[in-house]
């Protein structure tokens, strides 16, 4: 067990975001044994965001890449944009090096395969809560590989968006018009136009079509 586990004196509040009840239960028991604190559960991206809006002291989200509402890296980026102070540890059955590298590029604090043993879970959580980036030893090679320049640049640009702008960008990528987005978000269409203008400027594109294409290319693979 890593020293960070035994040095934690303050209980933390964490969210396990996964749509498989048995996995959530097993992960919750593991976290309670090592961390104590208040471990919340969510079965979709929407329910995860609801918990974060309700509980302002959540320190850690353990996020499954494949659950309702979470397509590709959209869930990760939603959390990073909306709650930059919350650490996000990806917990996934996917062990493709490209997927891991992309998740880290887009702001994940660590990447934990679901096949990992209990001691890896404890090490990963301790490292992430200490502000370090964590991947299993056998996958650390992915950190030394250079990410594609365009993808890395897009990740940097996305980090400049506000939570509302990110939400609007996702709807643009889904093909919604400004007036449809305004209706969905219950705001004036002029507000959406302002958001879109800011999005285009921050992404360095000339129209909403290009913005939507970029989003789908990098976020929904």
Blueprint of the fold:
Blueprint: H1 3-7, E1 13-17, H2 21-34, E2 38-42, H3 45-54, E3 58-63, H4 74-82, E4 87-92, H5 97-105, E5 110-113, H6 118-129, H7 141-144, H8 149-158, H9 163-173, H10 178-185, H11 189-203, H12 208-219
Parallel strand pairs: 1-2, 1-3, 3-4, 4-5
* CATH fold node name of the largest domain: Rossmann fold
What is the 3D form? Answer: globular
CATH class of the largest domain: Alpha Beta
Proportion of helical residues: 40-55%
The helix tally amounts to: 12
Oligomer state equals single chain
What series of H and E elements makes up the topology? HEHEHEHEHEHHHHHHH
Low-confidence stretches: 1-9
- CATH superfamily annotation of the largest domain: Response regulator
Q: What percent strand? A: 5-15%
Main beta-sheet annotation? 5 strands, parallel
The tally of domains stands at 2
- Give the overall pLDDT as a whole number: 84
Tell me the span between the first and last alpha carbons: 36 Å
Order of the strands making up the biggest sheet: 2-1-3-4-5
Using only CA atoms, what is the Rg?
18 Å
Total strand segments: 5
Protein name: Response regulator transcription factor
Organism: Bowmanella denitrificans
Keywords: Phosphoprotein
């Amino acid at each position: 067990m890593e020293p960070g586990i035994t040095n934690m004196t303050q209980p933390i509040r964490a969210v396990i975001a996964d749509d498989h009840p048995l996995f959530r239960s097993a992960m919750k028991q593991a976290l309670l044994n090592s961390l104590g604190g208040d471990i919340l559960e969510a079965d979709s991206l929407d329910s995860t965001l609801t918990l974060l809006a309700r509980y302002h002291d959540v320190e850690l989200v353990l996020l499954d890449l494949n659950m309702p509402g979470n397509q590709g890296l959209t869930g990760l980026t939603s959390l990073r944009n909306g709650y930059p102070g919350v650490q996000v540890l990806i917990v996934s059955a996917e062990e493709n090096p490209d997927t891991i590298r992309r998740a880290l590029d887009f702001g994940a604090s660590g990447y934990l395969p679901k096949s990992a043993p209990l001691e890896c879970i404890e090490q990963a959580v301790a490292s992430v809560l200490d502000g370090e980036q964590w991947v299993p030893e056998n996958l650390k090679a992915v950190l030394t590989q250079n990410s594609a320049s365009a993808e890395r640049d897009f990740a940097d640009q996305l980090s400049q968006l506000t939570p509302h702008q990110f939400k609007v960008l996702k709807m643009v990528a889904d093909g919604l018009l400004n007036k449809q987005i305004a209706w969905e978000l219950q705001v004036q269409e002029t507000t959406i136009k302002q958001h879109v203008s800011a999005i285009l400027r921050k992404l360095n594109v000339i129209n909403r079509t290009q913005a939507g294409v970029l989003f789908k290319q990098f976020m929904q693979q």
